[in-house]
Write a structure and sequence with these properties.
- The chain is of the alpha+beta class and 361 residues long.
- Helix 2 runs antiparallel to helix 5.
- The protein is rod-shaped, with a radius of gyration of 47 Å.
Length: 361
């Protein structure tokens, strides 16, 4: 009986072992790929990474940095909004600069008022007063001369009738009246001549200097409003109301670095791809007239034909894709720009990474 139990247990264990071995030896059926991996469509095509950008005649997307510093007071646009050249995008607190500009404007206006006053001289009222003073001085001189003549006539008739002291006083009064008339006549001529030319020139220079100072302050004040430099689309706004920005840009919390305050691109009927060709493959590039390329959108089976635009003739470190400025290998690339029409049934956005194959016609 005991041997029978041992035999049955051994047989059961062997059977379980065989079943386990069979189960674990089965390979799971592989799942079909979600999309077909990019394949080189050219016999001698060159592979490269690419970044989608807005279609620009030259350069890359428009990166806007403020020329002044301060907290943002208002954001006037939304991401994806189409704007025209000169459209206000956002404003920075300008209270201090606005007060300074208004002060300098008032100073310039005061200087202009002084200059206008000098140019308007002589004033009619001042000229009338000066003329009246001349007439009064002439009348005083006539009265003094008449008095002197009377005393001289009386003295000639009887020397004892007029004292020498009285005659001297009359002569002195006539002399003083004559001198006073000359002074008032010269004062009248000076008033009639108007402001001195050197006073006018000095006032003109003062007004010009203050006007230039106001224009400078007004120009700086205008920079507190960031405006669109061209027609296009707002791709990104890297800040919010109340955030402090500077000419370095906006502080990015996630990357802990500074980014452009606003990124703009041209209207996105067409886009472009900036393909980065490894420097060791640059010599395999066909002539620009024979270049053709296809773009493969990652995560899809879509491939888009590209039209060659230009080569940026400057090999630079490959930091655009990762922003890594410290790498163990100094990998350098040549940017080649292609253009394509945005597919109607596929969402593509600037900044998206794609695979690009470059071949020859």
């Amino acid at each position: 009986m005991r041997n029978r139990v041992i035999f049955i247990g051994s047989a059961t264990g062997l059977l379980l072992a065989l079943i386990s071995a069979f189960i674990f030896s089965q390979q799971p059926k592989s799942q079909p790929p979600l999309f077909k991996p990019a394949a080189n469509p050219y016999a001698h095509g060159i592979y490269s990474n690419g970044v989608i950008e807005s279609d620009q005649a030259q350069g890359e997307n428009i990166n806007l940095y403020p020329e002044v510093a301060g907290p943002i007071t208002e954001i006037l646009v939304t991401e994806g909004q189409q704007v025209f050249k000169g459209t206000p995008l956002l404003t920075i607190d300008d209270s201090v600069q606005r007060a300074l500009a208004e002060q300098q404007q008032a100073q310039a206006e005061a200087a202009l008022g002084m200059l206008t006053e000098l140019r308007a001289e002589p004033r009619r009222e001042s000229l009338a007063v000066s003329r009246a003073q001349v007439d009064n001085a002439r009348a005083t001189l006539k009265s003094a001369r008449d008095q002197l003549e009377k005393q001289r006539h009386a003295h000639d008739m009887d020397a004892r009738s007029i004292s020498a002291d009285a005659l001297d006083n009359a002569q002195n009064a006539e002399s003083i009246a004559a001198t006073n008339l000359k002074v008032t006549e010269r004062q009248y001529a000076l008033t009639k001549a108007g402001a001195w030319v050197y006073d006018i020139q000095n006032a003109e220079k003062t007004y010009t200097a203050l006007s230039k100072a106001y224009q400078s302050s007004a120009a700086l004040l205008a920079k507190y409003t960031i405006r669109a430099p061209a027609d296009g689309v707002v791709l990104a706004v890297h800040s919010s109301v109340g955030s402090y920005v500077s000419p370095q840009g906006a502080y990015e919390t996630y990357t802990q670095g500074y980014t452009p305050l606003v990124v703009m691109g041209l209207p996105q009927g067409h886009l472009q791809v900036r393909a980065y060709i490894d420097e060791i493959l640059v010599h395999d590039l066909p002539e620009p007239g024979r270049l053709q390329a296809e773009m493969f959108v990652r995560g899809t089976n879509v491939h888009v034909p590209l039209t060659f635009v230009r080569i940026q003739p400057l090999i630079s470190p490959k930091i655009e894709l990762s922003d890594a400025r410290q790498e163990r290998v100094d990998l350098r690339v040549l940017p080649v720009i292609f253009r394509f029409e945005k597919p109607a049934n596929l969402n593509l956005y600037p900044g998206e990474l794609v695979d690009v194959y470059v071949g020859a016609k």
